[in-house]
Amino acid sequence: MNKPVQPMSSLSLKLPKADRSVETYRLAASRTFPAKLEGPLNRIAFSAVHTVVDPFADNDPWLSVAVDWDKTIAFREHVWDLGLGVAEAMDTAQRGMGLDWPTSLELITRSVGAAKRRNALVFSGAGTDHLAVEDAKNLDDVIRAYEEQISAVEKVGGRIILMASRALAKLGRNADDYAKVYDRVLSQVREPVIIHWLGDMFDPALTGYWGTGDLDRAMDTAVAIINGNAAKVDGVKVSLLDKQREIDMRRRLDTRIKMYTGDDFNYAELIAGDEQGFSHALLGIFDAIAPAASYALSRLAAGDEAGFHDVLGPTVPLSRHIFKAPTRFYKTGVVFMAYLNGHQDHFTMVGGQESTRSTLHLAELFRLADKAGLLANPELATQRMKTVLATHGIES
After folding, report:
1. Which residues lie across from 123 on neighbouring strands?
2. Helix H or strand E encompassing 25
3. I want to staple 375 with a disulfide (CB 3.0 to 4.6 A). Which of 63, 122, 281, 381 is the partner?
4. d(CA 83, CA 29)
5. Mind listing the pLDDT tens digit for each residue in 248-271?
């Protein structure tokens, strides 16, 4: 299935360049990947997935959310078919950037229900985002907020990804404050959770998480809390975009605890691992590259590490582009890929976030996706790219 086809000489379009010129870009030879998982995997891999909005809703996108539930669940089924798990209602779904807690809970409820019907893997984000940061007066407020969301997710049969808390980042002054919150919350969960350490490049409101701006001390605190609650922790997702820090933390974790890479810059080599271990995956970029990720992981499980890197390696430049600073706007690239690949019929996002990246950024995304063989239907992707360019005044 993963075979190059003949170059598509008839497919080209005009794309803008940084020097204000326009080039005629000819698409490269394409690759095809299986639509379903080929063989068992030896890594656990989650895709943090996006939310599809209803473009026909008569709402104010900056103030309210209108979800296309059918398309949203259909995309999750696409991910499950590929053998990947779904990380639901995380920052890729625009949690904290337009997706509020009531809508998140409905999303979690629907996704958990769909997963149960097909015995698929889903973990869901529980945090404190319904508690406005300015209303959080003490650590007990943060604990209660976590407890409320955890209870709601568990009530619908969901497994927990314990998200970082903006309120805790505001109030937590030291390691003891973080230990108080996490020890209390973890003592109550029904099943082991995945703890998410989200760096401030993804959310500036999380600056100084774990009680310090010193990342070495922050890691000491995180490792102590996590290892101290090992029976309640399935794994840790680290989103710091720092390969060595993830490796260092991975080697310090209790052997019962998995490391899930959240490094959208270096995931291929972190998943492959080294003589001392490897990372599983919980990645936003897997939303955009799910077929390639699934096939690459199946090659790795089959002992074909060269095949794994051959497929996944070319996706890394695209991921680094999508997640470039300001990193929090990466969701725009993820949804744009879903539009190009036909998973939704529009390029419209929660909160109007389709406007957070430039036309030049989207044009380069198209080039990199093509070079990695990630355009599932090149003709459709080309036509949709032309449509977006035309709305920005660029004739192609």
Report:
1. 87, 159
2. strand 22-26
3. 381
4. 26
5. 999 999 999 999 999 999 999 999
